[in-house]
Amino acid sequence: MKRSAYRYAFGAMLLALVVACSGSGGLDVNVDISGSPEKTLEAAMKADQDFAALAAKDGPKAAFLAYLDPVEGTRIVPGGMVKGADANAKGFEGVPPGFALAWSPDGGHGAASGDLAVTTGRYTIKVDGVQQDAGRYVTVWRKDAKGDLKAVMDLGVPDPGPQITEPDPEGRPG
User: Fold this and answer.
1) 136 near 127, Cβ under 8 Å?
2) How does pLDDT run along the chain (174 residues), one tens digit per residue?
3) Considering the domain 37-158 in this protein, what is its CATH number?
4) What does the alpha-carbon distance between residue 95 and residue 97 come to, in Å, rounded to a whole number?
5) Angle 93-117-53 (CA atoms, 0-180°, nearest 5)?
6) Strand 99-110 relative to strand 80-83, pairing
7) What angle do CA 63, 116, 121 make, to 5 degrees?
8) Which residues does 21 contact at the CB level (< 8 Å), separation at least 6?
9) HEC string of the chain?
10) Other beta carbons within 10 Å of 11
11) Please, are residues 45 and 108 in contact by the beta-carbon 8 Å criterion?
12) 12-36 burial string, b = 16+ CB within 10 Å, else e?
């Protein structure tokens, strides 16, 4: 049975939320429900837009180092995960000149507690202005000790490529 890339993306997003929401120890059942999910999402969308603007201005490496949580920040990449500032910085070494990663948030969800949000949107990767890849992304945001939203999980799912089917040797359609 052929599985859609979006099915795997849903599983990855679910895993990202579980990891982002997991604590370091015991169960804390105190939840502040006095906040507004809309305000939390609004703050995360602004952080995501600022993140994208910094990537356009100073490059994706500088932007990821500024907006990804330096310890817990994890990017899901083909074949694995990259966690922490040093590992994420290394991930951008060797990108070709003219490499540009651009994105724009278009939705998400915010927690009423104000400390967790998820943004989604479209991304493109270009080299010397020629598009190499495009797709959808998900970023999980969490407030740090200073109260700033930092990305703790980021993943992108490329758009499906063209579906190539082999012609039927008998000339039958479909």
Assistant:
1) no
2) 445 555 555 555 544 444 444 444 433 334 444 579 999 999 999 999 999 999 999 999 999 999 999 999 999 998 999 999 889 988 888 899 899 999 999 999 999 999 999 999 999 999 999 999 999 999 999 999 999 999 999 999 999 977 666 776 777 665
3) 3.10.450.50
4) 7
5) 45
6) unpaired
7) 55
8) 116
9) CCCCHHHHHHHHHHHHHHHHHCCCCCCCCCCCCCCCHHHHHHHHHHHHHHHHHHHHHHCHHHHHHHHECCCCCEEEECCEEEECHHHHHHHCCCCCCCEEEEEEEEEEEECCCCCEEEEEEEEEEEECCEEEEEEEEEEEEEECCCCCEEEEEEEEEECCCCCCCCCCCCCCCC
10) 11
11) yes
12) bbeebbebbeeeeeeeeeeeeeeee
Give the position of tokens 């039927």: 168
Contacts of 16 (CB under 8 A, 6+ apart): 76, 138, 140, 153, 155
Cα angle 72, 75, 77 (rounded to 5 degrees) comes to: 150
